[in-house]
Amino acid sequence: MSAFTNAMRQLELAATIAPLDPATLERLRHPQRIVDVQFPVKMDNGSTKFFHGYRVQWNNDRGPYKGGLRFHAQVEMDEVKALAFWMTIKCAVVGIPFGGGKGGVTVNPKELSKGELERLMRAFTRSIADVIGPDKDIPAPDVNTNPPLMDILADEYGKIIGHAEPAVVTGKSIAHGGSEGRGTATGQGGYYVFDVYREKSGFDPESGSIVVQGFGNAGQVIAKLFHHHGYRVIAVSDSQGGIHDERGLDIPALIKHKESTGRVSGFFGAREINQEELLTLPCGVLVPSALENQLTGEIAPRVQAQMILELANGPTTPEADAYFAKHGTIVIPDVLANAGGVATSFLEWQQNKTGEHWSEKEVFARMEPLIREAAKAVIHTAEKYGATQREAAFVLAIERIAEVARS
Ligand code: NAD
Asked: Is 248 left (phi over 0), alpha (psi -120 to 50) or beta?
């Protein structure tokens, strides 16, 4: 089941929950534009190589398209379309004035030198310069792209239009107009969302243990926050395996261990477990923070978490969703749970537009109410329609898009 098929099933399901505008639904079933480009890059050995890049612009009814750029050898257009669609829903759920997009280049960046990668980023920027812009489409980092590459995009775009325009892209380095706090925003936002649900559901921190799948940017930050707030993080995993300690893992020490060895396995005092064991451990909150399609219909009946906080995009299939809904497991959907990242990108864009630079404290003081309000609005919509949290998030987003949709 592709991520795109899942995304479209989620849309159709939302349409059965509430009386949504048929024209808006039809509009959201297709991208507004797919830009497909081929461009030359001068390689270090003097040869010229052609690369293939793309940008999916799903919907801009609420504002400029917004979404990451990934550099990956196997570009799956279906996956990119799903991610562009989810960005549209996510920006509407969190109430920021952006639409949704996603894009990238078919390349294994590890095979390129630093200079080749820079020339590739510049050439790609030139080939999509017509369709991006601070009020048109604002890219950001995604898989295998990072702040230095976003700085290059902004620099090349500035050369094309004849003046600096940092608001054309977010996720830049601080020196080039990036925002304080962007690096930890997704995990931080996920924690604020969890906190709203905790208050609402009476989730007991004493009894609630935490399991985190994926120990990268998002997974490490949320594990650290749970640990900091006194929760027992009993298991984590990365692509090479998982570890479990029912007494609770020392997360700051585990981050150091991961930095020095490149993996979570081998952490002192913890039991080695596999991915499946990790996902099916009894726990308060399971936090998928790695890949799509991890919680399937097959594994769902063995999942023992009370609550699932989706920091990853698309970790739960519709079959698993249906199982969890029937058995009372609360699934806090990705379009809400990981929206702290894009909310902070919006704040970076605002800072660039006004020429200001806010402290991390100021950034989070603005991000927190956006996220908490979004979580409360989703809960309210779920109660109103007797829907799951995901259905409610989609209904809320589609209602908001319908309010401003142009005909
Ligand atoms: P990352 O590359 O920093 O980390 C991913 C982690 O997942 C790594 O630790 C990797 O080893 C692990 N992993 C990979 N395959 C695995 C497997 N089969 N089982 C267990 N772990 C595995 O990526 P990230 O930025 O933390 O993103 C993680 C997820 O969160 C993605 O779905 C991403 O789309 C989503 N997300 C991230 C952000 C952000 O700002 N970083 C924002 C929104 C959504």
From this structure: left
